[in-house]
Design goal:
The protein is α+β, with helices and mostly antiparallel strands. The protein has helices spanning 3-14, 18-34, 79-85; strands spanning 37-40, 44-51, 54-57, 64-67, 70-77. The chain is built from three helices and five strands. The mean pLDDT is 91.
Length: 89
């Protein structure tokens, strides 16, 4: 499901305007850029961690290369969501 399909589904389910749902998603992205962890009960935890500089080898040339530090984004679903998806209680 793409973002626009998700927004349409939320609009049909709740009656909230598309513009308002867009603003919620945009706000979540902004918050995740500055905050390391966002917990949404019954949904899960959005988190980013910093990965340090790494050395890798180019498999084609054998040359060693540096990868600059970057952030890794993770989402861990709540037990509530896992149970719903797996049809367990």
């Amino acid at each position: 499901m793409r973002k626009l399909e998700l927004i349409k589904a939320i609009r049909q389910k709740t009656g909230v305007r598309d513009k308002d749902v867009h603003q919620v998603f945009d706000a979540l992205v902004e918050i995740l850029q500055t905050t390391q962890k966002v917990v949404i009960p019954k949904l899960g935890v959005f988190r980013h961690t910093q990965i340090g500089k790494q050395k890798i080898r180019n498999p084609q040339t054998g040359e060693m290369m540096d990868i600059p530090p970057r952030k890794r984004f993770n989402f861990k679903p709540s037990l509530y969501i896992k149970n719903i998806i797996n049809n367990t209680k």
